[in-house]
Amino acid sequence: MQEKISFQNSRGERLAGVVHRPDTGHLRACALFAHCFTCTKNIRAAVNIAEALAGEGIAVLRFDFTGLGQSEGDFGATHFSSNVQDLVDAAGFLAAHLQAPELLVGHSLGGTAVLAAAHRIDSVRAVATIGAPADAEHVLHLLDDDLERIEREGEAEVRLAGRSFRVRSDFVADVRAQRVRDGVRQLRRALLVMHSPVDAIVPIAEAGRIYASALHPKSFITLDDADHLLSRATDAAYAGRVLSAWAARYLPEDEERPAPARLQRGAVVVRGQPEDIFRCAVNADGHRMLADEPERHGGTDLGPSPYALLAAALASCTVMTLNMYARRKRLPVGEVEVAVTHDRIHAEDCAGCETVTGRIDRLQREVLVTGDLSDEQHQRLLEIADRCPVHRTLEGEILIETRARD
Fold this sequence. Notes:
By secondary structure, this protein is α/β, with parallel strands linked by helices. The protein is built from 11 helices and 15 strands. The protein is about 30% helix and about 25% strand.
């Protein structure tokens, strides 16, 4: 769930942002995301990380700094200190309209900014940086060819990431005056440093300086072969998943979520308590999730219902089976999508069913296969769908044995 918002900074300019809210409506905590120098709130890393955190019940505000993206103001009149102030103003907006932020996340120079802003936002419990320099002055290497002209003439038009920006001498003076790394030791918040060893914009040595300056609790995660902007979707998604898992340790416990189910290899373990109502913790051979019922049935909709999980089993098995068949027969299949719904109907409405009275369960499956296929190939794939193992299990004789466990 994404909501476009705007808020006024301390200089009276309107800043544009997007709030990612948890789909369930249950809010565990709030986070602020600071984008990189000259980027915008829509950079892929920001979107993927916001979605990952929202999936853990953490609302995220990503916004455009002054003069960038859809925000008002003159970028040329901004500097590192104004970015930090924008973060403080954004935190004030969250506190007034949703919940004070407990997590700050910053990418590149935005990471340096959240390290500086954390000291001024009392609600913050944890800070994470991604590809961030240890000090703001590092950004001046991007201006190497124009730095002398900026200082001599007071300002200059520069090209950064293929776009033109006007940079003034007071920006240069401001970043040179910052001592962000000196304050990291007094951060007194949990810190996560994420960096790629092949980052060509901010060397990984900068991550080492941040990490060495901080006191525990602190963590470091390598982003392997990711580029500075996390431009590959897989890299951005990985960073988001790791960050959401790490942040969960330092944010308030989610009282609405049941304790995790234990791991039993080769089995699905589900646990819950009467006070959880319908909520259950699921551990499917190491893969954790929640099961619940929708609100209309008295649940809190924090996870799929048991029948939705049953439908998911049939749908996923169908997709796997059709893709395996397409590979084996070398069919020009682009993508397979299967939708399954569950309901109950009167037995008398089912002409081919053995049951003649009462109600029976019905699973309706819609199969979409893209690709340059003939009508005969499409029809054959529908026949193969009926051969998926879960389909055969559901239509065959099933023996369920129940016993007590000590």
